Protein backbone atom coordinates (compact mmCIF):
# COMPACT_ATOMS: atom_id res chain seq x y z
CA UNK A 1 0.00 0.00 0.00
CA UNK A 2 1.41 3.31 -1.07
CA UNK A 3 1.72 5.83 1.73
CA UNK A 4 0.43 9.31 0.97
CA UNK A 5 3.14 11.95 0.74
CA UNK A 6 0.70 14.82 1.08
CA UNK A 7 1.76 17.17 3.87
CA UNK A 8 -0.98 19.09 5.66
CA UNK A 9 -0.18 22.11 7.78
CA UNK A 10 -2.45 24.14 10.01
CA UNK A 11 -1.51 27.76 10.44
CA UNK A 12 -3.30 30.47 12.37
CA UNK A 13 -2.16 33.65 10.63
CA UNK A 14 -5.44 33.86 8.70
CA UNK A 15 -7.16 34.54 12.03
CA UNK A 16 -5.07 37.58 12.92
CA UNK A 17 -7.51 40.25 11.72
CA UNK A 18 -10.72 39.12 13.37
CA UNK A 19 -9.08 37.37 16.35
CA UNK A 20 -7.27 40.49 17.54
CA UNK A 21 -10.40 42.63 17.27
CA UNK A 22 -12.65 40.00 18.86
CA UNK A 23 -10.36 39.30 21.81
CA UNK A 24 -9.75 43.01 22.39
CA UNK A 25 -13.47 43.75 22.25
CA UNK A 26 -14.54 40.93 24.57
CA UNK A 27 -11.76 41.65 27.06
CA UNK A 28 -12.57 45.37 27.09
CA UNK A 29 -16.28 44.62 27.43
CA UNK A 30 -15.80 42.44 30.49
CA UNK A 31 -13.21 44.63 32.18
CA UNK A 32 -14.78 48.03 31.56
CA UNK A 33 -18.36 47.00 32.34
CA UNK A 34 -17.44 44.96 35.42
CA UNK A 35 -15.26 47.82 36.66
CA UNK A 36 -18.05 50.33 36.00
CA UNK A 37 -20.58 48.20 37.88
CA UNK A 38 -18.22 47.61 40.80
CA UNK A 39 -17.29 51.29 40.98
CA UNK A 40 -20.90 52.47 40.95
CA UNK A 41 -21.88 49.82 43.50
CA UNK A 42 -18.98 50.80 45.76
CA UNK A 43 -20.24 54.37 45.65
CA UNK A 44 -23.51 53.18 47.22
CA UNK A 45 -25.78 53.41 44.16
CA UNK A 46 -29.10 51.59 44.03
CA UNK A 47 -29.57 48.38 42.03
CA UNK A 48 -31.49 50.24 39.35
CA UNK A 49 -28.77 52.84 38.95
CA UNK A 50 -26.13 50.13 38.74
CA UNK A 51 -27.97 48.33 35.94
CA UNK A 52 -28.63 51.55 34.03
CA UNK A 53 -24.95 52.48 34.31
CA UNK A 54 -23.92 49.03 33.12
CA UNK A 55 -26.28 49.11 30.13
CA UNK A 56 -25.11 52.60 29.18
CA UNK A 57 -21.53 51.39 29.42
CA UNK A 58 -22.33 48.43 27.15
CA UNK A 59 -23.89 50.56 24.42
CA UNK A 60 -21.34 53.36 24.60
CA UNK A 61 -18.42 50.95 24.75
CA UNK A 62 -19.61 48.89 21.77
CA UNK A 63 -20.04 52.00 19.64
CA UNK A 64 -16.71 53.40 20.79
CA UNK A 65 -14.94 50.14 19.96
CA UNK A 66 -16.54 50.00 16.51
CA UNK A 67 -15.67 53.61 15.71
CA UNK A 68 -12.15 53.36 17.08
CA UNK A 69 -11.34 50.12 15.28
CA UNK A 70 -12.81 51.35 12.00
CA UNK A 71 -10.90 54.62 12.06
CA UNK A 72 -7.58 53.10 13.11
CA UNK A 73 -7.72 50.11 10.76
CA UNK A 74 -8.98 52.31 7.92
CA UNK A 75 -5.93 54.53 8.45
CA UNK A 76 -3.77 51.43 8.07
CA UNK A 77 -5.67 50.47 4.91
CA UNK A 78 -5.20 53.98 3.49
CA UNK A 79 -1.45 53.75 4.13
CA UNK A 80 -1.30 50.36 2.43
CA UNK A 81 -3.18 51.66 -0.61
CA UNK A 82 -0.91 54.70 -0.83
CA UNK A 83 2.18 52.48 -0.74
CA UNK A 84 0.71 50.20 -3.41
CA UNK A 85 -0.11 53.17 -5.63
CA UNK A 86 3.46 54.48 -5.25
CA UNK A 87 4.84 51.04 -6.05
CA UNK A 88 2.60 50.76 -9.10
CA UNK A 89 3.94 54.06 -10.43
CA UNK A 90 7.54 52.98 -9.84
CA UNK A 91 6.94 49.72 -11.69
CA UNK A 92 5.46 51.63 -14.62
CA UNK A 93 8.32 54.14 -14.83
CA UNK A 94 11.38 52.05 -13.95
CA UNK A 95 10.71 48.30 -13.96
CA UNK A 96 14.42 47.47 -14.28
CA UNK A 97 15.29 49.24 -11.03
CA UNK A 98 12.39 47.50 -9.30
CA UNK A 99 13.70 44.13 -10.51
CA UNK A 100 17.10 44.95 -9.05
CA UNK A 101 15.45 45.97 -5.79
CA UNK A 102 13.57 42.69 -5.59
CA UNK A 103 16.73 40.76 -6.46
CA UNK A 104 18.61 42.35 -3.56
CA UNK A 105 15.77 41.46 -1.19
CA UNK A 106 16.08 37.80 -2.14
CA UNK A 107 19.85 37.93 -1.86
CA UNK A 108 19.54 39.24 1.70
CA UNK A 109 17.25 36.31 2.44
CA UNK A 110 19.93 33.85 1.40
CA UNK A 111 19.55 33.20 -2.33
CA UNK A 112 22.59 33.21 -4.61
CA UNK A 113 22.72 36.29 -6.87
CA UNK A 114 21.95 34.37 -10.07
CA UNK A 115 19.02 32.53 -8.52
CA UNK A 116 17.76 35.70 -6.80
CA UNK A 117 17.80 37.54 -10.12
CA UNK A 118 15.92 34.71 -11.86
CA UNK A 119 13.31 34.48 -9.09
CA UNK A 120 12.79 38.23 -9.21
CA UNK A 121 12.47 38.15 -12.99
CA UNK A 122 9.88 35.36 -12.99
CA UNK A 123 7.82 36.87 -10.17
CA UNK A 124 7.88 40.25 -11.88
CA UNK A 125 6.65 38.63 -15.08
CA UNK A 126 3.85 36.85 -13.23
CA UNK A 127 2.57 39.69 -11.00
CA UNK A 128 5.06 42.45 -10.31
CA UNK A 129 2.88 44.46 -7.94
CA UNK A 130 1.97 41.43 -5.83
CA UNK A 131 5.63 40.43 -5.58
CA UNK A 132 6.68 43.87 -4.35
CA UNK A 133 3.66 44.19 -2.05
CA UNK A 134 4.53 40.90 -0.39
CA UNK A 135 8.32 40.97 -0.29
CA UNK A 136 9.11 44.70 -0.16
CA UNK A 137 6.12 46.17 1.68
CA UNK A 138 5.01 43.16 3.71
CA UNK A 139 1.40 43.42 2.51
CA UNK A 140 -0.43 40.15 1.89
CA UNK A 141 -4.05 39.10 1.52
CA UNK A 142 -3.98 37.55 4.99
CA UNK A 143 -2.53 40.54 6.85
CA UNK A 144 -4.10 43.39 4.88
CA UNK A 145 -6.30 45.78 6.86
CA UNK A 146 -10.07 45.16 6.85
CA UNK A 147 -11.73 48.11 8.63
CA UNK A 148 -15.35 46.93 8.52
CA UNK A 149 -14.47 43.44 9.71
CA UNK A 150 -12.46 44.85 12.62
CA UNK A 151 -15.24 47.29 13.57
CA UNK A 152 -18.01 44.70 13.54
CA UNK A 153 -15.90 42.10 15.39
CA UNK A 154 -14.93 44.59 18.08
CA UNK A 155 -18.46 45.92 18.61
CA UNK A 156 -20.08 42.48 18.71
CA UNK A 157 -17.46 40.95 20.99
CA UNK A 158 -17.55 44.00 23.30
CA UNK A 159 -21.32 43.69 23.64
CA UNK A 160 -21.06 39.97 24.41
CA UNK A 161 -18.27 40.55 26.92
CA UNK A 162 -20.08 43.45 28.60
CA UNK A 163 -23.29 41.44 28.78
CA UNK A 164 -21.68 38.87 31.09
CA UNK A 165 -20.99 41.07 34.16
CA UNK A 166 -24.21 42.96 33.45
CA UNK A 167 -26.18 39.70 33.66
CA UNK A 168 -24.41 38.84 36.92
CA UNK A 169 -25.31 42.24 38.34
CA UNK A 170 -28.95 41.74 37.38
CA UNK A 171 -29.16 38.29 39.02
CA UNK A 172 -26.86 38.64 42.03
CA UNK A 173 -28.23 39.63 45.45
CA UNK A 174 -27.64 43.28 46.28
CA UNK A 175 -25.69 42.45 49.42
CA UNK A 176 -23.07 40.43 47.55
CA UNK A 177 -23.20 42.12 44.16
CA UNK A 178 -19.62 43.39 44.16
CA UNK A 179 -18.17 40.01 45.15
CA UNK A 180 -20.26 38.11 42.60
CA UNK A 181 -19.42 40.51 39.77
CA UNK A 182 -15.70 40.48 40.57
CA UNK A 183 -15.35 36.72 40.93
CA UNK A 184 -17.41 35.75 37.90
CA UNK A 185 -15.89 38.49 35.74
CA UNK A 186 -12.42 37.17 36.57
CA UNK A 187 -13.62 33.69 35.66
CA UNK A 188 -14.95 35.06 32.35
CA UNK A 189 -11.61 36.75 31.69
CA UNK A 190 -9.65 33.58 32.42
CA UNK A 191 -11.92 31.64 30.06
CA UNK A 192 -11.44 34.29 27.37
CA UNK A 193 -7.68 34.03 27.83
CA UNK A 194 -7.82 30.27 27.35
CA UNK A 195 -10.02 30.55 24.23
CA UNK A 196 -7.80 33.24 22.70
CA UNK A 197 -4.66 31.23 23.44
CA UNK A 198 -6.07 28.07 21.85
CA UNK A 199 -7.31 29.97 18.79
CA UNK A 200 -3.98 31.72 18.35
CA UNK A 201 -1.69 28.86 19.38
CA UNK A 202 -0.26 30.69 22.40
CA UNK A 203 0.49 29.48 25.94
CA UNK A 204 -2.84 28.90 27.69
CA UNK A 205 -1.80 29.51 31.30
CA UNK A 206 0.16 32.67 30.53
CA UNK A 207 -2.70 34.12 28.48
CA UNK A 208 -5.29 33.38 31.17
CA UNK A 209 -3.14 34.85 33.95
CA UNK A 210 -2.37 37.97 31.93
CA UNK A 211 -5.97 38.96 31.25
CA UNK A 212 -7.09 37.99 34.76
CA UNK A 213 -4.41 40.07 36.44
CA UNK A 214 -5.17 43.24 34.50
CA UNK A 215 -8.90 42.74 34.94
CA UNK A 216 -8.52 42.36 38.71
CA UNK A 217 -6.34 45.46 38.87
CA UNK A 218 -8.86 47.53 36.88
CA UNK A 219 -11.77 46.45 39.08
CA UNK A 220 -9.82 47.06 42.29
CA UNK A 221 -8.82 50.58 41.27
CA UNK A 222 -12.33 51.45 40.07
CA UNK A 223 -13.89 50.09 43.25
CA UNK A 224 -11.50 52.22 45.29
CA UNK A 225 -12.35 55.30 43.25
CA UNK A 226 -16.08 54.61 43.61
CA UNK A 227 -15.84 54.20 47.35
CA UNK A 228 -13.72 57.35 47.67
CA UNK A 229 -15.86 59.66 45.57
CA UNK A 230 -19.09 58.06 46.79
CA UNK A 231 -18.12 58.90 50.35
CA UNK A 232 -17.28 62.46 49.38
CA UNK A 233 -20.61 62.88 47.59
Protein topology:
Elements: H1 16-42, H2 47-93, H3 95-108, H4 113-135, H5 147-171, H6 177-200, H7 204-232
Helix pairs in contact: 1-2, 1-5, 1-6, 1-7, 2-3, 2-4, 2-5, 3-4, 5-6, 6-7
What does this structure look like?
- With 233 residues, this protein is an all-alpha fold.
- It has one domain.
- The protein is 81% helix and 0% strand.
- It is built from seven helices and no strands.
Structure described in brief:
The chain is mainly α and 233 residues long. The protein has seven helices and no strands.
The coarse silhouette is elongated
Task: Give me the Rg, rounded.
Answer: 25 Å
User: What is the H/E string?
Assistant: HHHHHHH
Arithmetic mean pLDDT: 84
- SS summary, helix count: 7
Poorly predicted ranges: 11-15
Structural features:
233 residues, mainly alpha, 81% helix
